[in-house]
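Please, structure for the following, as tokens.
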Amino acid sequence: LNGNEGLYYLAARDVFETRRQEQFKHLIVTVSLFEIYGGKLFDLLNARKIVKCLEDAKQKVCFLGLSEHAVHSADEVMDLIESGGSQRSTGTTSANADSSRSHAVLQLSLKLPGRRSRSGSGQLQEHGRLTFIDLAGSERGADTNKSDRQTRLEGAEINTSLLALKEVIRALATGGTMQHIPFRGSKLTQVLKESFVGEDARSVMIACVAPNFSNCEHTLNTLRYADRVKEKEFRAGGGG
């Protein structure tokens, strides 16, 4: 990465550079940002209003009540991310003084002007979408044993959702049919369904590891988790 430019900025910059091409100039770029906390979705760009994750008649995942914000540059995207990030749920554990207590989901969408979605949401029809999921890290009991009850409950919810995601990845890796892929195991996996089996979907997992010995167990667990994704095959959907 160049300097302090992270993945969000680099991706947004590429989107706007591509949009300058003649065949894409008509597209509208929008940003949405929400978190998955305690099994519920909260819009981080709209006063933390609750968002519903549902499926339409064609089993396409829809986010009812999620606000969309038109943007015209990568800097505008980063300003919204900074604003929404300040609304994200955080807390303190023995392992981290500023620990994320939720999964954050950023959607960078390309919309077709003048065309409305058939889902009944009233939103513009989608041409394409980039979804970034910042997963909260799994937590050992030792990391929260001195924390209050709320923090322990948050940690348990995070671990449950990550386990559900692991089961989905395992089912996809073994070629399970749509009927046997447990997307309903958690809100996280419901949200990620389109990313795994949506038409022409592609998924990438980026693992964050640390070289110091005190984080050895965390690093090994993360690498094992990420290694599972490499085994995944899109046999259930149109993606390859």
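Confidence is low (pLDDT under 50) at residues 234-240. Residues 137 and 158 are 8 Å apart (CA to CA).
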